[in-house]
């Protein structure tokens, strides 16, 4: 029998596994298929926004530019939160499709740095293999 994660499980927090040391060792980057919410400093660290632009442009204008470039899917003006775009597969734009590793690990957003301590279900991870036939 093959162990696979069904896509629907990532969206259902009740199926998530309590995080424990070593859990990521056997994972195939399931957390990198969830929407990633970032703030302006994250976008600067990722190199998507120039520090000068971050200081002198309105976040709404930056969001518009990044949406046109396909790098951001959504901007929550009230909270100043950008949601990074994902590939059609649901993968993060910065996830290497072959190795399933982050291509911007040293510059990764705070959301990724703090996972799984923060998120939809703190202390839990979408890694939850299910047996499939």
Q: How would you describe the shape?
A: globular
Distance between the termini: 6 Å
Widest beta sheet: strand line-up: 3-5-4
Number of strands: 7
* Low-pLDDT sequence parts: 1-8
Instruction: Let me know the average pLDDT.
Output: 84
Give a quick account of the main beta sheet: strands, pairing sense, barrel closure: 3 strands, antiparallel
* Series of secondary-structure elements, N-terminal to C-terminal: EHEEHHHEEHEE
What structural category do the secondary elements indicate?
A: alpha+beta
The total count of helices amounts to 5
Helical fraction equals 10-25%
Kindly estimate the percentage of residues that lie in beta strands according to DSSP.
Answer: 15-25%
Radius of gyration, taken over Cα atoms and rounded to an integer in Å: 16 Å
Instruction: Provide the number of structural domains.
Output: 1
